[in-house]
Write a structure and sequence with these properties.
This protein is an alpha+beta fold. It is about 55% helix and about 15% strand.
């Protein structure tokens, strides 16, 4: 059977097998399955070879720009703070591998900061945020506060919420 490339392949196939003995039909079906398997393998190999490797720029939604060390440090610091991970996480092989894979397309390699460097970045960011909050509270004509105190597993906590009217 010769497939002419039209969309009505099933119709051609049914007409072709109508007058064939069962053994020939089985052989034809086996050949079709073999051809489909070869095509899918070739297609999968082509997808794998043409798929660009992910970069931090692609991850962040930028196609061509490379990630700078400062941007990577900021993202790692945000991850550690938001996920409440220990700062020692920057020394883990898993995070180092993730950063190297995501920044593979960069012309300049990106590295995880040291534990000491990460502590300094988080401390500096905290100081900047505290200064910003203090400024807003100082400039606000009215401030309303709410406090909540609780304990869990022999540790005490206090939460404070402030609302301003501009």
């Amino acid at each position: 059977m010769i497939y002419n490339g039209e969309d009505n392949f099933e119709k051609q196939y049914k007409i072709e097998i109508k007058n064939k003995p069962v053994s020939e039909v089985t052989a034809m079906e086996t050949e079709i399955k073999r051809m489909e398997t070869e095509e899918s393998k070739a297609s999968a190999a082509k997808k794998i070879s043409t798929t660009p490797s992910p970069t931090m720029g692609n991850f962040l939604g930028r196609r061509s720009a490379c990630v700078t060390q400062a941007e990577a440090n900021s993202a790692i610091a945000a991850y550690i703070v938001q996920e409440m991970e220990p700062v020692s996480k920057v020394e883990s092989a898993g995070l180092k591998n993730l950063v190297s894979v995501l920044t593979k397309g960069n012309s300049i390699p990106i590295y995880c900061p040291t534990r000491k460097g990460m502590n300094k970045m988080i401390s500096d960011t905290y100081d900047e945020m505290m200064a910003s909050v203090k400024k807003v509270l100082h400039e606000a004509p009215y401030v309303s506060t709410t406090a909540d105190i609780w304990s869990k597993r022999n540790r005490s906590y206090m939460g404070l919420t402030a609302h301003t009217i501009q």
